[in-house]
Every structure is written in C-alpha cells, then in structure tokens.
Amino acid sequence: MSKFRVGITADVLKSDGLPIFGEAVLGLLDDPDLQWEYMDPGSEEVTQAQAARYDAICAMITTVTPQSLAGKDRRLKLIARFGVGYDTIDVPACTQAGVLLTIAPDGVRRPVATSALTFVLMLAQKVLIKDRLTRSGRWNEKSDHIGTGLTGRTLGSIGIGNIGAELFRLAKPLEMEFIAHDPAADSGFAAGLGVRLVDMETLFRESDFLTVNCPLSDATRGLVSRQLIGSMKPSAYLINTARGPIVDEHALYEALAGGRIAGAGLDVFEQEPTLPDNPLLKLDNVIVTPHGICFTDECMRGLAESAFRSVLDVAAGRKPTYIVNPEALRGAV
C-alpha cells in the first residue's frame, strides 16, 4: 500500500530555507503512513502533475484553478489552507473534482484580531507621526498631534464571525461602544459580546474605528464603497486586515487625501504586492503592512497545526473539522 503523500507549498519557506511556522510542528506529520515534502517553488498555481503526485496539498497563497484539477490521473483529495481566506481557490472546481478544502480559523482568530486592535491603538495614539517626529528631532511639534481617546468611542466591525467576535472580546476593557453589521449574525450571540447589530449605513455613520472582518466573495467585493466611505465621520478611521478588494481603494485614497476621514490602517490591498507608486503609501495618515501584520510565531504555528490535522484526518478516513465544501466529502474520505 502506497503512503499518503503530502505536498507543502514552498511559499511557507523563509529566506533561510526554514518554514515560517517552525520545524517542531512538522512533527505532527511524523506518521509511518505519511510522506511529505516541500513543493516546487517555481509555480504560483497547483499543476496537474502536482495534483497527480499528492493526496493532500497544504497551501499558503498558491492558487488552485479548474485546470489544476483537470488531469485524469489526479490523486489529490485535500487542499488544506494555511489561513481562513480561500479566494485563491476555485471552490466549485474542488467540489466537482471531489477535493476537500479546509481552512484554519483557530490559527488566525487571536492573531488577526490582535492585529486589528494594534491598528486601532496605533492610529488613536498617532504612533506613526510621533515616531517620525522623534527620529527627526521635532519634539516641539508633538502638541500638534493629539491622539484620540478610546473610552466611549465606537468600535465597528463588518462581520462578527471568528475574527470580529474575538476583536470585541479583546477590546472589552477599553470601555468602547461596540456595533457591527453581519446578516448572518445571531442576535443573542452579539448581545453576549455587548455588540449592537446595525445596518451598514449606521455602521459607517457611527463608527469611530471601523474594521473589516469579512471574507472576500462576489457579495463583498467593493462592499466598502465610495458612498459608504463618504458617510464616515471626518474623525473616523478605517482598518482593513481582511482582503483588499473589499474596499474601493481609489475612493479610500481620495477620502484620506482630502481629509474627509482621519486615517487608515491597511494590511491588504486591491493588488498584492501593491506597487511602490500606490498613492496610499505617500499619505502620512495611513499605516501600511504587507499582508502580514499578524505573522507571529503563534499565528504560524496555529495555522500549520490546523492544516496538518486536516491532513491526518483525511489520511485516516476521518472528516476534518473546518471544511469549506462538505459536498466534496464523498470523494475524499
């Protein structure tokens, strides 16, 4: 009987050749019935040859298309994402091919919520401009950059799922008001977090700090529109740690450059990597990070542990925990 083959995409490797999640967690794959390896680093898309070579692929940002799964000799049963977003994966194609897609919400819940809160704190305290004042010896200008106290301010979230809910839990000691918009939210669950559910227009109008905590889909692409951005307070901040295309980036730039909102914290962009001449990068009221603000040892370890547990489940014929397309179960386990 052949071993269950596992491919790990090479985009998890740092410049020193070591995995971003550390080598210890690879011990989960120390199973005599498993054989794992890092995949060819030259491809940004899973190839038919790779789908024929591996039973499971653990993927960071590598894409999966219908072409990836079109080969007649495909043995692939599982795509295990190191993350919760799956806009790089063609889910209908996976389902049709009987390939399970799993995600890793346990790995990102606390790290991404902490990242959103980090942006809140940095923007409120004007850390970026104060850092620049200090480095350039302009201490006498500090009184020109008074921050925003958080007590009694309103923290809003588009989405109150895995990450949005954790953000509100973390922010509870700050004594802020909590509001959110999420059509799928349970009102009792929201109330237990101290969150008032509101419509989208109210969310944008009332939030002092508005965070994006929803997945990218056809329904959310461009959701943060010019009209909604225009309804925000001039003193408000927008924070996006989800996906760039959820926000109309040009409209956001115009609002920031024109002083119609106070600032933004952006970990994600419409195009990634974003170009060096992106005008958002020139603004003093924007803090930017390279779709990696949550990259901590805790986050990476949690993502790998979740993905590898999905591998172990499928290899043993068990149903993994966080399945995106349960319709594909019949072909995988």
Short description:
The protein has 333 residues and is of the alpha/beta class.
Number of helices: 11
H-E order:
EEHEEHEHHEHEHEHEHEHEEHH
Helix content: 25-40%
Could you tell me how far the N terminus lies from the C terminus, measured between alpha carbons in angstroms?
17 Å
Largest sheet descriptor:
7 strands, parallel
Q: Give the name of the CATH architecture of the largest domain.
A: 3-Layer(aba) Sandwich
CATH topology value of the largest domain: Rossmann fold
CATH class of the largest domain: Alpha Beta
Binned strand content = 5-15%
User: How is the largest sheet built, in terms of strand order?
Assistant: 8-7-6-9-10-11-12
Number of domains: 2
Low-confidence stretches: none
Shape: elongated
Give the tally of β-strands. 12
Mean pLDDT: 96
Any overview of this molecule?
- With 333 residues, the protein is an alpha/beta fold.
- The protein has 2 domains: 4-106 and 296-332, Rossmann fold (3-Layer(aba) Sandwich); 107-288, NAD(P)-binding Rossmann-like Domain (Rossmann fold, 3-Layer(aba) Sandwich).
- The protein has 11 helices and 12 strands.
- The strands form 2 sheets. A 7-stranded parallel beta sheet has the order 8-7-6-9-10-11-12, with helices on both faces. Strands 2-1-3-4-5 form a 5-stranded parallel beta sheet, sandwiched between helices.
- Strand 6, helix 5 and strand 7 (177-181) form a beta-alpha-beta unit.
- Helix 3 (105-124) crosses helix 5 and helix 3 (105-124) runs antiparallel to helix 10.
- The radius of gyration is 22 Å and the shape is elongated.
- The relative contact order is 0.15.
- The mean pLDDT is 96.
